[in-house]
Specification:
Length: about 400
């Protein structure tokens, strides 16, 4: 029986990367693998038989003293606790393979040396561009920034790229510099996985070794998604209400196109977005947080799902889930989004950040014959069935694992 150790900061479904972490682990248990998990303690955690090895919770949001902030910052850079607990877990579980997801800031890259010293093949799925830039979203003051590519990682400190905070920027700068010196990633990770071709090309631009980077697209368990092909009338966004998601651009475009818009989700920009919708007189309904059947039903009742991002998205699951539910997608032409949209077949793209361009696409979708909107939704669902299903994903990962074990 094969043994897989799955590693991630969070052990609850906090975001898309965490969902992939859980689903990946589950898929291998289903085919008879024994799995163990290593993560951070948290009040929202799901159950794990291995939680006795989880590290103590570390978060950066909150009213902490200068001493507490310094302590948290030091653990984000290098965690002796995480190294010790992981070593004990490895002693007991002795995995054949380790698959890591998001580890920085909480578990910290210091754990990579523990795995590398044992010679266990270790795979890491890159859900963002942290390997290239310490400010993993590559955003500065709300705009895409790649200053570190030419100016070095000190740019993250000079420009206070992390939430405009000098202290947070100093932590990620220290982390980046230390693990560059230690060669933590390149020396200890056997293979990096990227879910989008865009991310692979971007990492190559930043000088990363293409031989160590494999493209394996994300998946959607289509069996869990009952499609609804009959077109509704509203444009729908579901996700976090934060600045990089471009929701303000979407509200402005919906007002300009005179299209009804539903927003599902919460986030730091919610109040500002509500004020914007009121100011513009836009027909926007804030639906709040939704999940499960309620979310699926809301998507099925829409005409299209919109992803108006203004940062380098990787391979957003919301696109795949929209297709699985039988809806076409309108997506910003940025990051890995365009490779998930077949133009005028499964959806449409537009220039990221352009209100006029998005309004034009929303108007187009609103006036398309219902039969054509339905056909686009069916094509999207079929694409998920054929190329982004659970069997296809597991097949690709097993092939990769097999290559690693044979070397």
């Amino acid at each position: 029986m094969k043994r897989l150790l799955s590693v991630n900061n969070y052990f609850y479904r906090r975001g898309g990367a965490d969902v992939l972490f859980f689903e990946h682990d589950r898929l291998f248990r289903e085919i008879g693998w024994e799995t163990a998990q290593f993560a951070m303690r948290h009040q929202h955690n799901e159950h794990s038989d291995w939680s006795r090895y989880f590290v103590n919770e570390i978060e950066f949001d909150g009213d902490y003293s200068a001493l507490q902030k310094a302590w948290r910052g030091s653990k984000a850079v290098y965690s002796f606790e995480a190294r010790s607990k992981l070593a004990s877990l490895l002693d007991e579980f002795n995995p054949d393979l380790v698959h890591a997801h998001n580890i920085y800031h909480h578990l910290s890259p210091s754990i990579l040396g523990v795995m590398g010293n044992r010679g266990t093949p270790t795979v890491m799925t890159l859900h963002d561009l942290k390997l290239a830039c310490p400010a993993y979203k590559m955003l500065r003051e709300g705009k895409v920034c790649e200053a570190c590519k030419e100016g070095g990682v000190r740019q993250v400190l000079a420009n206070r790229c992390m939430k405009s905070s000098w202290s947070l920027s100093a932590v990620v700068y220290a982390e980046a510099m230390l693990h560059k010196v230690l060669n933590s990633y390149e020396q200890n990770i056997t293979k990096f996985i990227v879910p989008s071709r865009f991310y692979r090309e971007k990492l190559l631009e930043w000088g990363k070794d293409g031989e160590k980077i494999a493209y394996v697209p994300n998946f959607v368990d289509v069996e869990k998604f009952e499609p609804g092909y009959e077109p509704g009338r509203v444009a729908l966004y579901f996700g976090r209400l934060s600045s990089e998601k471009g929701v303000d651009t979407l509200i402005r475009a919906a007002a300009l196109a005179n299209v009804e818009l539903h927003l599902i989700g919460t986030g730091p920009e919610e109040e500002t977005l509500r004020e914007l919708a009121t100011e513009l007189g836009a027909c926007v309904e804030f639906k709040g947080y939704m999940s499960g059947n309620g979310l699926h039903e809301a998507v099925r009742s829409a005409r299209t799902v919109v992803l108006p991002s203004e940062w380098f998205e990787n391979a957003p699951l919301s696109v795949m889930e929209a297709y699985a539910l039988g809806k076409p997608v309108v997506g910003a032409g940025i990051g890995g989004i365009p490779e998930l949209i077949k133009e005028a077949e499964t959806g449409f793209t537009f220039e990221s950040g352009s209100v006029d361009a998005l309004a034009g696409v929303l108007s187009r979708v609103a006036t398309l014959p219902d039969a054509e909107v339905e056909r686009m939704g069916r094509r999207g669902r079929s694409w998920m069935d054929s190329n982004f299903s659970v069997p296809r994903y597991r097949e690709r990962i097993l092939e990769l694992y097999g290559q690693l074990e044979s070397t």
